[in-house]
Amino acid sequence: MLLIGDPLGSEAARRLERVGCVDIQPGLTDAEFATIERRYGFEFASDHRAFLAEGLPVRTVGDDAREHAGWGWPDWRDGDPETLWQQLDHPVDVVLDAVRDGS
Fold first, then answer.
1. What domain of life does the native source organism fall in (predicted)?
2. How confident is the model over 19-42, as pLDDT tens digits?
3. pTM (2 d.p.)
């Protein structure tokens, strides 16, 4: 069943692959989505799900800062769980730091 966001997510994945700036692996399966969403406590939006089902970007080509939470694409299939948690927490941490700093 296609949802409203699905065509946009699929097209985004195809465009990203054509640009060649990331390593693309086969897309996530329904079972993998279920595991990720259960483990990390969220649901992917329909367009993001379509994007990741089309192809899983795992690393920005030439990116040698792979271990840093704010860099590159999350490797939902084989990534280190601690690094994935850091990547999920990163936007919230940035906002909280800005509020604490009065920015």
1. Bacteria
2. 877 888 899 999 999 999 999 999
3. 0.73
